[in-house]
Amino acid sequence: MKILLCNVSKKYETITHEYAGLFYLAGALETEGFEPLVYHGKPENLLKEIELHEPKAVGFSCDFDNWDLIAHLAKKIKERWGIPVLVGGPQSIGLKKDFLEDSLVDYILRGEGEVSLPRLLHSIFNQRGEAKHIKGLAYLKDGNYIETEPPDMIKNLDELPLPAYHCSLHKNHSYGRMIFTGRGCPYHCAYCAPSPGKEKVRLRSIPLVLDEIKLNLRNNPDLNYIIIMDDTFTINRQRIEEFCKGMKEIRKERDVVWYCECHVGGIKSWMDILPAMIDSGLIRLQIGIESGDQKVLDQYNKHVRIEDIIEFVSYAADSGLTQIATNFIVGGPEEKDGVTAGLIQTLMDQAPGVIDIITGFLRAYPGTEILNHPGKFFLKLHDNNGSLCSDDYPFVTPAGRSQDQVMKDRQELNKVIRQSMQKKIKNHELKEAAVMKQFKAALTYGIRSRWFEEINANPRAYEYYYVIYLNEGQAFDRNLDFSRDYPQRTFELWRTMTVTEGFPQLDGVAISPLEYELLLRCAGRRTLQEIEEELYVTFGNYYQNQTEFHGRLIDILCHFDDRYWLTHFTI
């Protein structure tokens, strides 16, 4: 019996997104004798898939962004085929009677679906039990809205089947990048969307997790980046050590790196585990910061101190971590002026080229303190049911502050981030090792940080670092060996230099005759000593002696290096 499981979004540009949760559900359905199919992609293609495969029921994963889209699709499916339509996912706790009436959806499933979904399908198609006895359901019967008992948590996650990636309708897509090693979160942040069972942490055994990773690597020869989806992977040191030991063994056979999230407040007392994590392939670590105002963090119930965040970021960067990803919330409780921008600048200074910062508007997710008690945070909600919400415009604002003002706040904060990054790139304030790691993350593993994007937006800097990354050149220093070093331009002169105003200019900078002649010769064909001897014949009369001329050449070369115009190689 075919059951189609779907994740649809207007944001899909291709079908390359991997929604791992559906494949874990598919594994559970398969063990119960069903034939699950998984679709994740554009909504306009879904109806064609239903017509082609003729499933007996359709299940949707619903989140904050797609519930109205699902309602529209569900109504079409019910009107055209009349088959059961089921909805689960994180947004399910916010769906009520009006959603069922408007969408014609048959059942809402809350909590972990690996148990409740097979039971519900057996009830519908095989008359095995009644819906009212299945926990975590909401449905209409004779026009009456019914909610069953709260769902049970799955206590032993090791008993669940592995994700059934072979059930995908996207046959040209490779899977296995995303993995769960546990469920639940011990923290209760006011802005974070809750779900039944989330408050209790349950963990899979590390040997089973490693076996799943090995299976995914065997099935996907191109897989080189594992994303651990747990809310709080780093809550148990011994478990992390076991995982790192296993990943080191895997990496002996395969170049694979990994990502996880981390709560600084939980790991601060044993953050010396980081070097072992990095050594086992940790390339990107996500931490939640949210605000530079300690009072606001306390209101959010973050359980973290700002000084601990700064210490952690500094230690992680010094330990050699490639990327530290973080987010700041805009539109939350009122902050002291400038404190978040100040913290951003501090983190940029502590971890230049490593700290990867984004911003986002505060959202009022179903079940959160923000939605249930906005007055407690002195907040105003502008879209109580989430029908308008998106991350491109604020629908939660501090009292007395308009939506347009909050939008401007985010623009200004992003300006601080970008200007700080651009300044550090322009002034050569990034350590070469940190930049090389960003290039490797992007070009080898497809992990593009904001640092890589900003360097990429600066043609001179990108070409300069790319040459160094390819090991075709190196940065200048004042201790050059003129007899063995060959200077090499990082650009083609004809594309870059202009003489429209009667004199040569490069990147808007006037070039002196000596600089011009030096650049012409920096083509990787002659040593600096040969170039110096040739130029001294022409320009030496303007200097007291060759020693002074030599010093001037070094100054010019370092100036070229500052502008990312030159690298050199040694033979």
How many β-strands, per DSSP? 22
| SS strand fraction | 15-25%
The radius of gyration over CA amounts to 29 Å
Q: What is the total number of structural domains?
A: 3
> What is the CATH C-level name of the largest domain?
Alpha Beta
Largest sheet: 7 strands, mixed
Query: For the record, what is the CATH homologous superfamily label of the largest domain?
Result: Aldolase class I
Biggest β-sheet: strands ordered side by side in the sheet: 2-1-3-4-5-6-7
How confident overall, as mean pLDDT?
92
End-to-end Cα distance: 69 Å
Uncertain stretches: none
Helix content: 25-40%
Count helical runs: 21
The secondary-structure class comes to alpha/beta
**Overall 3D geometry?**
elongated
The CATH architecture of the largest domain can be named as: Alpha-Beta Barrel
What is the CATH topology descriptor of the largest domain?
TIM Barrel
